[in-house]
């Protein structure tokens, strides 16, 4: 119970900080919008083609946008040695991590909510398959990106050129999840995959989330106290 | 005093040298078996001989990540408890990661050569190929991270990354069992019809022994080199501290 309270405290603190500055959400939103526009200019999508590539482009836009926010997400903890204070605080390190992941997750979901209608307009989309499955794929996929991303952003705090390091590490590790998200999303939009296959990709995504969230939670204590 | 010790041949050097000689001998036997003695594959012709290099090295390229994983876990365990042991665990992790990259690169390139001859294409995005490429990417990023991070922290960061990479290697192993792929079905333990013909066995066994011995030799050699670098670094740090103490006196 106290663990949950610690997580919520961290979450509330991050939300308040974000509410006052609105740095990461605004940055992410504009960046994702730009990626979507650049891609739609590059491919000039017509209705049938757009469904085939939209899943990939959507996730690439979200991935790039997430990276821009994640690079900053720990930087605000470093000002005035807040991170050192948190390290010495009696709350478990993984609670700090979970709070951070939840807040980043909320920011990215917010961006997705704004992005989705724009996407439908620009790419002239309507789902041919079970559209409601997207409500399952989007959070699971976002969690996979945000959880690993937050973890490796914390790892990158102590490296030279950390803006460079995060994508170098995060992209290879997220590839299985990205593959599953893109396959599932495209399958839903085009209705070309049968429901069993889509269900299989979603299960793979859920398994990925469980495995990597566990690994992150177990190792975060080492990351935060690495001297 | 140290210099005199360096001039005599130490027992480990003797072991390493004789290991290398035996390895080279086994490599020659394996080469002779695979290229000259095994009957030509009925379906594939001489291209099939690449099997004796591709498969043993592929098996080993999934074995060395486990060494890397074990060494990284040992590093994380000893990090605060016994820093000197942790350093040697870290040297082992680095050595095995580099050897893993070498093996994975060989697997990818021999696989491409075979694919071009047998399938007519260099590369296809099938589950086995993709997951192996992923493992290669993970270990490349492992080595890059070691370069990027400032000294003193690179080991911890690398060890944590190694745990993530280790999650992938069982996926590579299982990929041709879970998915129906373009990659040939497993040769060993793949159910009925798997396994090798008797005439192919010697070439396969000699080659896997040879490449395992070669990998162990390179890992050991790289480990010794990294240990020397660590010791030289410690000596330099120690003499810097001593020099600063003399200055203040």
From TrEMBL, chain A:
TM region(s), chain numbering: 25-43, 55-74, 95-120, 132-157, 169-189, 201-224
Keywords carried by this UniProt record: Cell inner membrane, Cell membrane, Cytochrome c-type biogenesis, Membrane, Transmembrane, Transmembrane helix, Transport
Any Gene Ontology CC annotation: plasma membrane
Subcellular location: Cell inner membrane
Membrane topology designation: Multi-pass membrane protein
Molecular-function GO term, any one: heme transmembrane transporter activity
Swiss-Prot/TrEMBL GO biological process terms: cytochrome c biosynthetic process; cytochrome complex assembly
Superkingdom classification of source: Bacteria
Known role: Required for the export of heme to the periplasm for the biogenesis of c-type cytochromes.
Family of the protein in this entry: Belongs to the CcmB/CycW/HelB family.
Name under which the protein is recorded: Heme exporter protein B
Organism: Granulicella arctica
From TrEMBL, chain B:
Signal peptide: none
GO BP annotations, alphabetical order: cytochrome complex assembly
Molecular function GO labels: heme binding; heme transmembrane transporter activity
Main subcellular location of this protein, as a coarse class: membrane
Location in the cell: Membrane
InterPro entries the UniProt entry points to: Cyt_c_assembly, Cyt_c_biogenesis_CcmC, Cyt_c_biogenesis_CcsA/CcmC
Keywords: Cytochrome c-type biogenesis, Membrane, Transmembrane, Transmembrane helix
Membrane-crossing residue ranges in chain numbering: 12-31, 51-78, 90-115, 127-145, 157-179, 199-221
Topology with respect to the bilayer: Multi-pass membrane protein
One Pfam family per UniProt: Cytochrom_C_asm
Record bears the keyword Amino-acid biosynthesis: no
Cytochrome c assembly protein domain segment(s): 12-180
GO cellular component: plasma membrane
Family under the similarity heading: Belongs to the CcmC/CycZ/HelC family.
Function: Required for the export of heme to the periplasm for the biogenesis of c-type cytochromes.
Name recorded for this polypeptide: Heme exporter protein C
